[in-house]
Amino acid sequence: MTGNTAVLKCQVPSYMSEFVMVTAWVQDTGMHLYPNTDIGGKYTVLANGELYINNAGTNDAYKSYTCRTVNRLTGKSLK
Prior knowledge:
CATH topology: Immunoglobulin-like
Low-confidence stretches: none
Largest sheet: 4 strands, antiparallel
Order of helices and strands: EEEEEHEE
Number of helices: 1
Number of domains: 1
Mean pLDDT: 87
Domain Ig-like: 1-79
Distance between the termini: 29 Å
Protein name: Ig-like domain-containing protein
Shape: elongated
Strand content: 35-45%
CATH architecture: Sandwich
C-alpha cells in the first residue's frame, strides 16, 4: 500500500539470534543502510536490526534488501 511504512526483519535462526547483530542492510542497487536514529529519512535501521522504509511506494516494491550481520562472539561477518 502506497504511503505506508514497510518493516523488514532480518531472518536469523532462533538458535543464533542472541549471538547475531545486524550491522547494515544492502539494497540491490548497492546502497548500504546503517543503523541510525534519524527517523526523518526514507530509510531507518533501528538498533534491533529492523529496516523501516517510510512512505513506501511502487518503486520500493521492485527493490530487494539483504541484511548484513556479524557474530557477536567471533566478530565474523555473516550474510
